[in-house]
Amino acid sequence: MRIELQPMTKTPDVRRVRSKTSSQERYNIGEVAKAAGVSVATISRALRMPEVVAPKTLERVQKAVDRLGYAPNAQARMLRTARSNVIVAMVPDISNPFFSEIIRGIEQAAQRKRYSVLLGDTQYNREREQAYADLLATKQADGLIMLGARAVPHLPRLPTRVFAPVVSVSEYIKGISGVYIDNIAAARDATNYLLHLGHVDIAFVAGPPTSPVCIDRTRGFQIALRAVGIRRDPTLTVTGDFSIESGVRGVDGLLSGQRKFTAVFCSNDEMAIGAMRALRSRGFRVPEDVSVIGFDDMRFARYCDPPLTTIAQPMGEMGREAMNMMIEILTNPNISPIKRVLPTQLVVRGSTAPCSVSRRSGRRRRRSGPTALM
């Protein structure tokens, strides 16, 4: 192999000829401030907390940023502010559409505040939960949003030497800020509506019996019955796990046991879908023979056959409120725990109907239905 040696030439000035491949290398925050006619501090505030900057100033800053193609270096910002601008959202089951709607709300609010969301699917595993919580200790995340529905509300071990903001969604954890609904009142509203339609023999498909959410929904159901003098029949209550399959199994079990009922209240929409499937497979019509009501108002509820009457939870709003609450805590670390209870709504569709006299036959007394809480 022949090698030819070329004469050495002068080394070029790297600073003059280096290709600048990114906007971050060409412009710094000072140059952006100069282009916008504002201070460096104003640029920093506009990028981190746009809500505190005057709209006209924010518009000038945005135009300068867009024109120069400026983007702050995330690692450098983290070193200066000790913030990662990352929030961990822990969800116990990513396949559950209830949680996906809340995550969507968290993402929407986070984007407006220039935060990123790291989604952690824990699969109800405490070791997974702890691994995500440990990101706060290493400052890879600024805060933790916990979506509930595990058997027992559980707070992972958090770092004691650093500020560790936590927000809970859906389930109450003592001493932790959170966003909830009033599950007792919502379940009472659903039951009152069935009572108003004339139903007396109401089956109940409950969720996991150790879940605080499910305990409260069971209490609401019982309170509504007791208020009109109806003694709860324990043989008409079955337990599910929030899945469609458990709704099928629960109602199948009731029908196999020759239990008489004219309506079914399920603790979530998925179990209600399963309940309707089980009823149809046994030749019962919904709602002509048996009325069915769910809880959550998932997107598919309106497209069922018949469309599902249900209690609507403001899932997207819960997510947005949780993220806004996190920003409040990060802005003011000394703030006391915040509790926000959001309203629910009874959504009446085609799966419920008045109870006919023939379906009430066999009962010695009838009751006049109370006014439904709509």
Plain-language structure description:
By secondary structure, the chain is α/β, with parallel strands linked by helices. It folds into three domains: 24-72, 434 Repressor (Amino-terminal Domain) (Orthogonal Bundle); 82-180 and 315-343, 3-Layer(aba) Sandwich (Rossmann fold), CATH 3.40.50.2300; 183-313 and 346-359, Rossmann fold, CATH 3.40.50.2300. It is built from 13 helices and twelve strands. It has helices spanning 14-17, 23-26, 29-36, 40-48, 55-68, 74-81, 97-112, 126-137, 183-196, 212-227, 244-256, 269-281, 315-331, and strands at 86-91, 116-121, 143-147, 166-169, 177-181, 202-206, 237-239, 263-266, 291-296, 309-312, 339-342, 345-347. The strands form two sheets. The protein has a six-stranded parallel beta sheet with strand order 2-1-3-4-5-11, with helices on both faces. A six-stranded mixed beta sheet has the order 7-6-8-9-10-12, with helices on both faces. Helix 7 links the parallel strand 1 and strand 2 (116-121). It starts with 13 loop residues before the first helix and ends in a 27-residue tail after the last strand.
Characterize this entry briefly.
40% of the residues lie in helices and 15% in strands. It is of the alpha/beta class. It folds into three domains: 24-72, Orthogonal Bundle (434 Repressor (Amino-terminal Domain)); 82-180 and 315-343, Rossmann fold (3-Layer(aba) Sandwich), CATH 3.40.50.2300; 183-313 and 346-359, Rossmann fold (3-Layer(aba) Sandwich).
Distance between the termini: 90 Å
Alpha-carbon Rg, integer: 28 Å
Helix content: 25-40%
Examine the coordinates and then state which fold CATH places here, giving the name of the CATH topology of the largest domain.
Rossmann fold
Q: Give the helices and strands as they follow along the chain.
A: HHHHHHEHEHEEEHEHEHEHEEHEE
